[in-house]
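S.,

Sequence below, as promised.
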Amino acid sequence: MYPSLLAVFPLLLSAFAHKEATTPEEKEIQRSLRNAAYHCAPAVGDFTAARKRAFAQKALGQAGQPYLPGYDELFAQEVVQGIDGPDRDFLSCSPVQDTQIENNTCVLTPEVTEGPYYHKVGHPIRQNIAEYQDGLLLVRRLLTGVSCSLIPGKLLDIGVIDVETCKPAPNVLVDIWLANATGHYSGHPEPAPHLADEQPQVGGKRSGLLSAFPRTQHHETFLRGAWQTDRNGVAQFTSIFPGYYTGRATHIHTKVFPEWTVHPENGTFTPGRLAHVGQFFFEDDINMSVDKMFPYTENPIRHTRGRTRNWRDSLNIFEDSHINGYNPVFKTHLLGGVVSQGVIAYITMGVNMSASYDNWWKGGSDS
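The prediction came back faster than expected:
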């Protein structure tokens, strides 16, 4: 069954990228498509593991000289030579094994709320979005000759797959934003004065949420940025691990724009056609480990309401992000033996690149 199905896999997937399976026959085809994707998982997993190992070796460096390689270097010949396989066809299919396809290839990523903290104006085009925010290994300073380089301790490796072609999507803009270590978004430090004493919603779909904090600091841009995918369909960012706030699981927001307008005078952009709105998450185990590190220990709700676990995420956002079999949780890899030495986080979105959504926040308290 698998060889014949894989031969028509991209065509069938394109047909199902635009509709939800409803009849028993459609559901069976969709199930078979997912099985076919998992059929290729060992090769994809080996390839991803080799990228992780190569990155960790270079990032940690030798003799205390860390180094951050570019994405092209992760695909260098010496990286792939370490993977066994006939003819080194790393993305060919092999017998089914008990593993996961880490990049969710060709699975349509669900559309979920953008929340109230997106800025339509002033989002910078850049890869290092941390600015001066402290967090999980924000930066390490390395003196190289007469120049001073900043070596980040957290890398976000975000891939984009076009579900209509089942191929990487180069030259699209991936926009992300996240809360800092104490749970605040740049530009939104405090609640509105008349809501200073507001208590979180008790029960219901919005359990734990507060009203959105207004934007009062228009100059702040920390932990916001967008970057164009390279020829491999990947955008990389350096950041800190996000903090949490009441009612929401730890998450990172994202949008994908096939079209946008750059403003060279200030390094920002104006959004154009919007192809995807989503959120990424982390496993609760790593969330709990990061909670024990400074400055995450200074989160003002740490000893009162505490962290919201993934399964209790308000508005069912974590649950909704799993629609169609997609996995919205980053695959993380430690740079060293413990979390405090740095983290690389990998994920791939399956996006319908011909889509155009009017998925902009229009009020309310979704976050």
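The domain at 103-367 is CATH 2.60.130.10 (Protocatechuate 3,4-Dioxygenase, subunit A).

Coffee later?
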